[in-house]
Amino acid sequence: KSKIKNKAAKINAQVNEALQGGHIPSDEEYEAKAAAESLEKEVKRNKHIIETSISICLASTKEKIVRNNTKVLMEYFNKSLKFELINPYTDQYRIFLDFIPANSNYNRDFVQLVPMETLAGGVFGASDHLGDSVGAYIGYTVNCNRKVYLYMGRATKLNKSPAMGIYGNLGGGKSFNANLIVVLHVLFGSSALIFDPKSERSHWADKLDFMGDLISIVRLTPNDEDKGKLDPFNLYNDNIDEACDLAFN
């Protein structure tokens, strides 16, 4: 609270100094004043404020690729999302040290005080949009009552990873939703590889015989016959290089 109060006092002093000198405070100063007042209100409502510094690290074997990717990323955030990113050349080494997980904060120049909600809404992938604009209907959102459609085959056409996660409490329908998504995708022409640790789907290939040739099930039980099924060196026991690549990935 004291840090926010001191920051607000400093900004107010800058604005008042400009007014007393016959100058018009800049838009940045007014924006900073409004932000400080907003933070003070957040703290008064007993909400948590977090000291935050965000750094993004891009890597490649070629410098030109890194520079091009940096330019694309900055244009996307600065122009499309109105979220200011900067690339301070003189601070690259210290910012890289900041980027290392569990490391100390070496560069305090970019530390900002933000509410937890703001921080959570600014991370990669944070969105109130679920699913896709095309595909099979799989459910709806509770808060906004929006229908959710999903076709994971479209992701690869857009050069994106066709990945998803299903979260929820015990008995909340996670397994049912996963089953629904798999069956719908197989009906649309996809093939399914299922890792089944609880043997809940071992009967699918037989009972759903109309799609049995499109479903492959890997059972993972404590029995001896299932030991080492996911070991790359068992899968590629005749090709050590392939096994090493798979283990590395």
From TrEMBL:
GO terms for molecular function: ATP binding. The keyword NAD does not apply. Keywords: ATP-binding, Nucleotide-binding. It comes from the Bacteria. This is ATP-binding protein. It holds the Pfam family AAA_10. The keyword ATP-binding applies. The lineage of its organism: Bacteria, Bacillati, Bacillota, Clostridia, Eubacteriales. Gene3D superfamilies: P-loop containing nucleotide triphosphate hydrolases.
